[in-house]
Amino acid sequence: MKTEITVQLYDDVHTLLTKLRNKNAKFVEEYQINDFYFSKYSDSEINSKKYKDILDNSFIVREVVDGKSKRAKIVYKTKKLDQEGNVIAEDKLSVNIDNAERTVDLFNRAGLNCWCELKNHSFVYSISGVEFVIQVVEDLGIFIECEENNSIEHLSSDEKFEYLKKFILGLGLEIGDDFSCKKVYMKYLKDKGLTI
What residue ranges define each of the domains in the chain, with the CATH number in brackets? Predict the structure, then answer.
């Protein structure tokens, strides 16, 4: 399991890019991710379940668009939460597929519930060997995500979480106070007119 943090950003894009340049952030790559979350649960069942239960019973049809190329896969995630509900570790299993659109159509025809579509434009940056991703999530906002690297793999999940949190705080960005944003759940609730 890997540890990552995700926190919402409140700087506008121009201010954000200026702050990253001032920190000598190096641009690594850019891509688009289109995720389609499927579950056996209906929307009414999802409304009554906790986030971890929903995710544990869902899988994602993911399309990654990088320049002119497209890659697709089916992804299953499981997350480890601490007592406050922070995601302190995540495990992913993925299988490559040849076409995301046909797979989405297949699962819809099979009667599975596509309970959320999450689309983000991702910009990867690096500072002192630590990579992080700025994600502009359609109809939701801007987020920063940072995943553990090899230099901290010997630490416990809690220690990794605190290390990554300290790194993000050191960037001097205007951020929220939730370092474990659950973007898909936030988007689902927003689309349904609900709040966390």
Answer: 4-191 (2.40.320.10)
